Amino acid sequence: MAHSSHRAVIVRVLALPVIAAVGFLGWQLPRSHDGPPAPAAPPGPPGSAAVGATSYKVPGGALFVSPSGSDGADGSKRHPLRTVAKAVAKARPKGTIVLRGGVYHETVTVPSGKRLTIQSHPREAAWFDGASPVTGWRPGNAAWVKEGWTARFDASPTYTAGAGESGDADFRFVSPDHPMAAHPDQVWVDGVAQRQVGRRDQVTGGTFYIDEGARRLYVGSDPRGHDVRASTLGEAITVQGAGSVLRGFGVRRYATALPQMGSVKVTAPDVTVENVVVDDSATTGLSVLAPHARIRRVTTERNGLLGVHANQADDLRLESVRSAGNNVERFKYSPVSGGIKVTRSRKVAVVGGAVAGNLGKGVWMDESVYDITLARNRIVRNADHGVSLELSAKAVVAGNVIADNGGDGVKVNDTSDVQIWNNTLTGNGRTVHLVQDGRRRDDPRTPGRDPRQKGPDPAMTWRVEKITVSNNTLADARPDTPCLLCVEDASGERGAGRMGLTVNGNVYVRPDTHAPRTLVLWARGSGGRTTYTDLGRFRSETGQEARGQTHDSSAAADGQGTLERTVAGEADASAALPLPDFVARLLGKPAGARHVGTWLF
User: Fold this and answer.
1) Which CATH class is domain 132-232?
2) How is the chain split into domains, by residue range?
3) Which partner from 50, 154, 456, 464 sits 20 to 30 angstroms from 476, CA to CA?
4) How do residues 104-116 score in pLDDT, each as one tens digit?
């Protein structure tokens, strides 16, 4: 979502095609804040290679599949099988299935006990496609009708099949403004998605309606001479076989219902998904529900609810993932929608990705996520917060560009032990927002616990405490923003001085002293707050920002939040703190280096 301001140029600078074209250096991730480095993320721009561009080696004994094959064949290269499901049934554990170019209209499950690799043939474009061509239309009272339409999908507005919407408005997925969001039906005319409506009399150009009782599909646009397709399958691939690998193909246009979790679903440990595109799912593109998954160079775009979802996915790594333009069905921003959401997992890393233009939050770690690493990502133009850490603990947010998001740049709710280092934050709402509310881990009525814990998790205090904010550029918040750095306690129990905060070495950039007028909003223990319009008073009264700087000039930073050369030189020399070892390893920089903001990539 773009926002008008004197920095509106950022919308063009950080537009999706540009993000896709920008390269970045490799780096290393620690296994925890102070542990040994983990393997480097792959170099190059984030997201999958184009479908048909990969060239994975074909091992001896592989089974081949082709849309022109036969399921009675032996699966050799000369005599391929026709369906992937048949190949999965025929394959031996640790076998490889090679997809020849073409379209596979099917639903596939890799069963428990079978470790398989499913990959595309070198330089051939293979797509799993949940849609079918629709022909045989007749005109019918200001619309076009397809008789005998029998595709049926679960429209439950929740993750529980058959359940109605929650009695708590905060946990309702569907907005009254977009009541058809949870209906997974999808129609395209010449590749353009049509909007589903709930009544026959609402059908106009660009919309469609399904009368299940009469078994009719109506479209408002004239289908004659056009390619009309509609989703007829709900799920693409479910991986139940531990250690399996999916790589080098695309998945598109599945009518995945909310309770089905994702068009591609990982339910077994140690699964790798690499160079896979998941587009145009009715709800979520990729869902990870098991530990030790490695998601590399995956693109999830234009999905109805969410690009990537994970739950109870311990030791999850998302490397060079591109999640863009999701929530096209316009589900509510909360309880879930947008780019990436992870819940109830331990040790999660999102590195080197692009999370852009999603209608919702960019990256959301919520409800008992422990040991989080967010590094060297571009998190831009999302309609809600760029990064949200909620009811969680132990996180490093370092070296990211977080820009032009509709909500806060980084919002930390009820989360402890957070290290926010060397990020470039520009064009957001509250640039860094730390807020404590009344939710408590010891209250069994409060949702958010990891059910794998017998009681309250000792690692989760659900309190804003032990937070470090250093070496960041906080630039050009939107004009309606109340503060650049905001620390609030909605419970009124503790002031910022009792939260164990360390704020130092940051550079605050405003076009003038009124945009916004308040640099820092600082909670008081009584539930009130103090506003600071300059760093001098903030420094003298709180002891924070001993090295921080303010620059009230529209020329101090460009549209990407990059400091002007003279300003940057001064900031690096006199404001920046030396990089601690764990941040230096994470960003691939020498320990002790002094720099404000990220190293642009």
Assistant:
1) mainly beta
2) 132-232, 320-587
3) 464
4) 999 999 999 999 9
